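So, could you explain the following?
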Amino acid sequence: MSHLPGPRAEGAPGAGTGRHAPRPGSAPVGRMIAAQAALETRMLLRNGEQLLLTVVIPTLLLVLFSTVDIVEAAGDTRERRVDFLAPGILALAVLSTAFTGQAIATGFERRYGVLKRLAVSPLPRWGLMCGKTGAVLVTLLLQTALLTTVALALGWSPRGNAPAVALLMLLGAAACSGLGLLMAGTLRAEATLAAANLVFVLLVFFGGVVIPLDDFPGGVRAVLELLPVGALSGGLRDILRDGAGLPWDEAGVLAVWSALGLGAAARFFRWE
């Protein structure tokens, strides 16, 4: 019978020191947030319904309303129409990603218990929200690049300065994101799905996206200009079409909506 050698005593000749040094514990918070943001972005880009909402519909609206004289107030030539429409479609892109898409996805994650399980992971709850915000910003960057390319091909001649546009879109994304998370964290998933899509459709026509707010009666126009999409589309149009500086009134409206929406979402969001 063969004899198997027993383990060498520590310190004995030929004893190995080991190659692995386990370090149990969670990864740095920044790395976890980056990983969560990358995961959220991949999930969004693989979802056909989300792509329809965030990419296909805004692009089709831009092409259709720019090439067909549907909205007379936008101008008599294609160039004038696209100069009016492009800023509004960029505002619609912010709405579709930060509000509608995020509200629907988060609402169903809450219903299926995904958020409940993530809430007990090493990633803190605020880190999860940061990851979702990161995915929104990445998607918005891709949307902006695509829509800008299409608009330029249609004859768009943007004016103004990029930093003012970026700041306004970030404020718009914060405002829409806060409202989307508030809806997803307080309503049932089916109610969130219906309400988010209804708001999206209504604001296409009443948010200054394809129909000028000047076409509405004075009292109605004043209310619509205080909505996040109305303020964002009007501010972007002031910069990109008229060459104005940062529109402080619209930026102030978006800042107020950002504070209210994110504050309410942090206070009332239910994880299960």
The chain has a mean pLDDT of 83. The first helix runs from residue 29 to 46. The chain has one domain: 29-268.
